[in-house]
Amino acid sequence: MSEFSRRDFIKTSSLILTGVGIYPLTSFARLSKNGNPNFVEVKGQVKSAGKGIPGVSISDGKYVYRTDNKGKFEFLTNRPFVFISYPSGYQFDLLENGSVNFFRKLDFVQKTNQLLFDLQPAKNSDKNHHFLVIADPQVQTDEEADMFVSESCGDLKRRNMDLEDSNIFGIGCGDLVFDNFDLFERYNEGIKSTGIPFFQVLGNHDIDLSARSNEVSQRPYIDQFGPPYYSFNRGETHYIVLSDVFFLGNRQYYGYLDEVQLSWLKEDLANIPKVQPLVIFLHIPTFSHVVEYNPGRDINKESMVNRDALNQILEGYKVHLISGHVHWNENRVIENIFEHNTGAISGAWWSGDICYDGTPKGYGIYQSDGGAISWKYKSIGKDLDFQFRAYPKGAHPEFPNSYCINIWNWDPEWKVFWYENGIKAGEPIREIATDPMAMEIYAPNKPKKQPWITPQKNGHMFFFQPIDPEAKIKIEVIDRFGNIYSDTIV
């Protein structure tokens, strides 16, 4: 048989190829004949209730294929995993550790790997569903793991019960542990206790910083959770998990997406119409103001170096990017992309109940209703109406004559007012400033668990000076969805 291209091979099989790009020019027949040990043949089926599911995306992390009209697939690969992009309308199968099982590890001793993905239909329509985003549990000790399991996961479990959504899922948005890989077991214990199927994201503290290369550094995470990037569907929304922690050696890393992953992403999106909403999870934000507001930090570690490449691939889509890493909360909107940088569920590395920007330790609650995305921030141990903290006049040393408000989940569509004796008096002014509570708890001279922690200036602080110094002050905050929150300062 003469040598022919991968595209030609796909055309002669029952597979449908969704991507475009540069393909290897080694034929299936030639590889099989030579017995190349670096490649194995993959055959299998995606089915439910005994019937094959057509049109399901399946990937080896480099190329994306589609199942035929009988749900079958067949291809060659030299990659360690094969994974599906879960189609909408099906329950998530779980690994023993509580995370979603969307992949199969390949056996390269076997010439052919026979794979089966047998999916169970969702109990209810998943058009309207919720997902919870936790960032940076970052447990380093047994004591911190205990707090994560009892306090954090206890709150998640209660929220799950309140929502009563059979299609809910969770995302661990990276730094699941703090370099202590033995504590993956405790992290898994916590997420299993919530009753929520969880997907995971690779963080910079989930990699082996003593490894010799980026690929090898990811093994502790991969051994637990499988491929570090993948996609899935729920209702009308397409979800993608990216791995943007790139290990450089010498215990250093950058926020970066390599070419293999960018090409895979392009292929994954080739089957997704641009009218379909996208939600993308990653650990390091593509951009954060933390460096601009707090000079001295490394922008290459706090944001993605090659974010322009990602933005080009996402052009034309309506995208929500959801990240962690920074241990603060920030929302920014740039053209078609809304980026949510989620406050840490560990606060400032378990050194206090708030992050170093004053955001309470907590997590994001999101809802997709027919693809329309809405969200709130949930503080651990607080009611869902707790969306800001107001300080009396003089609480902030840099604004001694002003009242101060920290609205951690603020974005430009939010509205803020103050009232004096029941009469609307004005709108507070947003300033780049630190949070008074963070200044008190994390002052440089204060003893704390992690000595490097200091209060950080952020973009969600508001100030005003009352017209009547003796007036009773009420703060009113309205989020972009019309929800009203208020507090009175006596």
TrEMBL record:
Domain Calcineurin-like phosphoesterase N-terminal: 44-118
Keywords: Hydrolase
InterPro entries, A to Z: Calcineurin-like_PHP, Metallo-depent_PP-like, Metallophos_C, Metallophos_N, STPP_CPPED1, TAT_signal
PROSITE patterns reported for this sequence: TAT
Calcineurin-like phosphoesterase domain residues: 130-328
Keyword Hydrolase appears in the UniProt entry: yes
Domain of life: Bacteria
Single Gene Ontology MF annotation: hydrolase activity
A Pfam family it matches: MetallophosN
Calcineurin-like phosphoesterase C-terminal domain ranges (all copies): 339-485
Protein name: Predicted phosphohydrolases
Organism whose genome encodes this protein: Aquiflexum balticum DSM 16537
Lineage, opening ranks: Bacteria, Pseudomonadati, Bacteroidota, Cytophagia, Cytophagales
